[in-house]
Each structure stands twice: as structure tokens, then as C-alpha cells.
Amino acid sequence: MTHLCPGCERPFGGSFRRKQIDDWSAAVEQGEATARAYLERSGALTLAHTAVCDFKGLPLAVLALCPREELVAHYYKARAVLGDS
Q1: Can you give the pTM of this predicted structure?
Q2: In Å, how far are 12, 17, 26, 44 from 21, measured between CA atoms?
Q3: How far, in Å, CA of 73 to CA of 49, rounded?
Q4: Which of 55, 48, 66 is nearest to 11 (CA)?
Q5: Beta bridge partners of 12
Q6: Nearest CA among 8, 18, 15, 28 for reference residue 73
Q7: 2-4 and 11-13: which strand pairing?
Q8: Which one, of 68, 70, 45, lies nearest residue 58 by Cα?
Q9: What is the distance between the alpha carbons of residues 34 and 12, in angstroms, rounded to a whole number?
Q10: Consecutive sets of 10 residues in the chain, 85 residues long: mean pLDDT of each?
Q11: Would you call 18 helix, strand, or coil by DSSP?
């Protein structure tokens, strides 16, 4: 299935489940090292977002399944743990 990033509308493919979002949330709560490892495993760092996309670096499951309010909440949680990198 093809999805679009809600920030920059770049397409990406995959089949995603709510459990992947729960796993991401747990990784963020465990701290920076765990969150970064999750991002690497999830494929989040492979999507070629536009330079100004606010959602670059979020897991693809979050981008595909979360409504806007939840997406923004994940963005702020991730930035609190990972910074702007």
C-alpha cells in the first residue's frame, strides 16, 4: 500500500499496524539510544522527505496511521528525546 507523508507528501510504501506505533512510543520513553535504534530498524531514516518537512525522522507507521493531532504529539515527544537531529 502506498502512503504519503502528511508533511511533505512524499510517497512511501508498506503495511503498518498500530502495534508499531506503540513500540515506537515505548522506545521514546526508554531514551535516546533506544529511540534512535528503533528509527534505524523501522526504515524511518530512509524516506527522502523535503528539507522543510516537520515530520522527517518519524517512523513510517506513525506517518501512515496517526491522525494529525497524534502525529504532532509524536513529533514533540521525539524532539524532546532526540533533539532536532
Answers
A1: 0.86
A2: 17, 7, 9, 12
A3: 19
A4: 48
A5: 3
A6: 28
A7: antiparallel
A8: 45
A9: 24
A10: 92 94 93 90 84 87 94 87 70
A11: helix
C-alpha 23: how far from chain center? 11
Query: Which residue reads 535504534 in cell numbers?
Result: 37
User: Given the C-alpha cell 517512523, which residue does it identify?
Assistant: 59
Residues 1, 30: Cα–Cα separation, whole Å: 31
Contacts of 49 (CB under 8 A, 6+ apart): 5, 7, 8, 10, 55, 56
C-alpha cell at 16: 503498518
- Predicted confidence at residue 27, as pLDDT, reads 93
Contact between residue 74 and residue 58 where contact means Cβ atoms under 8 Å apart? yes
